[in-house]
Amino acid sequence: MRIKLLFIFCFCSILVAAQKNKDLSKDIFLAQLMQTKPEDFASILANKDSLNVQIIYTQIDRDKKNNPSFTNYTFNLNNNNYFYPASTVKMPIAFLALEKLNNLNIPGVNKYTKMVVDSSISAQQNFYAPTNTNSNPTIANYIKQIFLVSDNDAFNHLYEFLGQEYIQQKLKEKGYSDAVIRHRLNISLSNEQNRTTNAVSFYDSSGKLLYHQDAQYNKNNFASLNVQLGKGYYRGNQLINEPFDFSTKNRIYLQDLHDILQSVLFSDNVDQKKKFNLTKDDVAFVLKWMSAYPRESKLPYYDSANYWDSYCKFLLYGSEKGSLLPDVRIFNKVGDAYGFLTDIAYIVDKKNNVEFMLCATISCNSDGIYNDDKYDYETVGYPFMKHLGQLIYQYELKRDKKHKALLNKFDIEYKDK
Question: What pTM, to 2 d.p., does this model score?
Answer without folding.
Answer: 0.91
